[in-house]
Amino acid sequence: MFSPKPRGECPGASGCGHSSDDREETVMHDHRKLGRELDLFDTDPLIGAGLPYWLPDGAVVRHTLEEYIRTAERRAGYRHVYSPVLGKRELYEISGHWSHYSNDMFPPMDLGGEQVVLRPSLCPHHAVIYRSRSHSYRELPLRMAELGGMYRSELSGVLGGLTRVRAIQLNDAHIFCTLDQVAEEAQAALELIRRAYRALGVRPARYRLSLPGPGGKYVAAPEMWQRSTALLAEVLDRSGLPYEAAEGEAAFYGPKIDVQVADSAGRESTLSTVQVDFHQPARFDLHYIGPDGAKHRPVMIHRSIIGSVERAVAHLIEEHGGAFPAWLAPTQLAILPVSEAELPNAEALARRCTGLGLRAEIAGPERGTLGARIREARLVPYQAVIGAREAADDHVALRLRDGRRHDPQSADDVLARIVALVAAHSTGLWDQ
After folding, report:
1. What distance in Å separates the CA atoms of residue 249 and residue 212, rounded to the nearest whole number?
2. Contact between residue 430 and residue 416 where contact means Cβ atoms under 8 Å apart
């Protein structure tokens, strides 16, 4: 379903004809308002605060984003797992979450004489999965990834849209490696993040080295903190990335590199992160067998390319004003038959799109004049107009979201070009 944009607003970063400076000065997209107008997500008090549900178009965006991440991780040597969203309280006592983080966790549930908790993080589960099998140094680095649910007991006053929710789908991964491998693995994780940002059309506001601060609940291990901080600073320096140190922003178990993004009002949030953790490998007694035949402690790198799927989609809505890159758009091609006579050609074209993996929708004459339908589909990357002449030649007159128009050309050539751009995860609509 096409969701028309309110009059007077440009479609966003993917090509409205306005300069980026003009857009930043005049347009401030609120993902909560725009997400509802575009039928991406909504909330209901009967389900509960901080628990949004995804409508079909929003589910397409979410699913496409998740599949992009899974594919990128597989190509980078990660192996995916599934783990339960529940765990015994003892699990989080061992990890340190219970003593350092329990105020943000949901209360335990009593089940058969045991206390079970909705997990606030995936890392304890991944530590247990690693521990369940013996590992040799030849297997390291072992890269374990999951897109999994977790839960935070956020206060109702801080909840908002998709940016602060109580049920979170987290893009998470943990790399178990030797000390000598930490810098290279963390740098590779940063490069994964940078490639994803290029594909998503996202601009980092800054890189932050997040350190402990006074008064926070942190693991008391000064030597561990010093080692971890030195490693992450080395990674940032080797990557040539400018960064700022920020006290009070570290995880309770270690420092981290946070990739900050900003909304149109300049408010910052953390989208991606890379963390070095000596704490949990020791707490869970993780080890690998070294070349000397003895047990050695691995280092655990926590890494997230896009963080929470909810927050990532919220940022994408605001960054692009609903005009997503073509590979991510809920509808990639709007097919516009001029009259009822061209409807069979439109239906045939839609079937070809489906066979090629493109998301296409027919907007027929029953939905108004051609001009009205073009305006209604203004956020769709591509519009294929089919008149009598185009129908006779199996051609389409292609219109791009940014206002460019192409002379009628072969439908097969148009679809082949769109498929290639989508497969490349390009943020451009057409070759320049």
Report:
1. 6
2. no
